[in-house]
Amino acid sequence: VRTNIRTAALELLLRTTPEQRTELLLAALGDNDRAYRCAALTLAADYTDEALCAAIVGEWPKLTAEARTDVVNWLGDRHAVSQTATVLAAIDASDHGLAAAAVRAAGRLGGQEALEALIARLNGPLAEEAVAALASFNGQVDDGLVAALDADPVTQANALQLVARRRITRAADRVFALLDAGQEPVRQAALAALAGVTTAADFPRLCDRLDNATESETPQIQAGLLNALAQMAPEEQYTRTAERMAASAEKARYYPLLAHTGTQEAIDALLGGGDRKAAFAALLTVESPVVPEVLFSLATEHPEWKDEAITRYTELVTANRTPEEQVACCTKALGTDPAP
């Protein structure tokens, strides 16, 4: 009998014979047809209570690894916190599919025990699954992840990824400390984490880092600075960036930060920038209603920049102007000579 027919029959029986529901569902768990087993568990969702969860888990010793995986997935989907112990025990299963399913389910169940179990798997064969589970963990993870920044290097690197993804700003001090870690994977993870943990208070030390960064480090430190600046008003963004840029020997590194402010002062500063190529690249990222005309002028004055300038000009006017203005601006762009 085809799976869909068996499933329809089971659905009918579950609805019409409530006294047999548990027996019917437990029988389905022992079936060799995985599609049917999973369909039965899906149907069970309409009747789930603590007693049914306990009865299903009670079948655990009789189930294959594949069937146990299905049950663990179901427990996670149902947020069956009363069965957390069963799920956490399955993390140590020899079957990788079952263990991985248990990690995912633990993230859905939440709770301190699940949190500790997942953090303990940030170094090992289930690290990838543990990172994913902790990224969407059902509950507060800040204390555990900040503590994990003091663990072994592999755990540190994964925890750095997570504190950034979950924007745990109180981890910033530890992240900055790990920028000088002896292990390169940890140092790189700390650099990548800056954009997720920095606040306006970190602006000065980020600028200190930017002034002394290598070329490869610069983009990630700039990302951290952009995150810090985003929490300030545009005028303050410009003022603080301009002050640091004036005192820096690496002024071009501040151009993207000026561009981010979108102020007229920033545009003027970029137009007068000493590194014309870097200033132009930064201008291409500015979001401001006055930028299109600036880019159009640059396109006519610098043939080598024309393609990029006109492309960005067209993007901006298409996004921010009325239909009539769009037509006029695009007609204007079409009237320029092709780039050499």
What does this structure look like?
By secondary structure, this protein is mostly helical. Among the domains are: 200-275; 289-340, no CATH class. Helix content is 68%, strand content 0%. Helix 3 (34-44) packs parallel to helix 5 (65-77) and helix 9 runs parallel beside helix 11. The radius of gyration is 29 Å and the shape is elongated.
Shape: elongated
Helix-strand sequence: HHHHHHHHHHHHHHHHHHHHHH
- Broad structural category: mainly alpha
N-to-C CA distance: 71 Å
* Structural Rg: 29 Å
Q: Work out the number of β strands.
A: 0
Protein name: HEAT repeat domain-containing protein
InterPro entries: ARM-like, ARM-type_fold
Question: What topology does this entry show?
Answer:
Elements: H1 3-16, H2 21-29, H3 34-44, H4 50-58, H5 65-77, H6 84-90, H7 96-109, H8 112-120, H9 127-135, H10 142-148, H11 153-165, H12 172-178, H13 184-197, H14 203-211, H15 218-229, H16 234-246, H17 255-261, H18 264-271, H19 276-283, H20 291-301, H21 306-320, H22 323-334
Helix pairs in contact: 1-3, 3-5, 5-7, 6-7, 7-8, 7-9, 9-11, 10-11, 11-13, 12-13, 13-15, 14-15, 15-17, 16-17, 17-18, 17-19, 20-21, 21-22
Concise structural overview:
The protein is mainly alpha-helical and 340 residues long. The protein has helices at 3-16, 21-29, 34-44, 50-58, 65-77, 84-90, 96-109, 112-120, 127-135, 142-148, 153-165, 172-178, 184-197, 203-211, 218-229, 234-246, 255-261, 264-271, 276-283, 291-301, 306-320, 323-334. The radius of gyration is 29 Å and the shape is elongated.
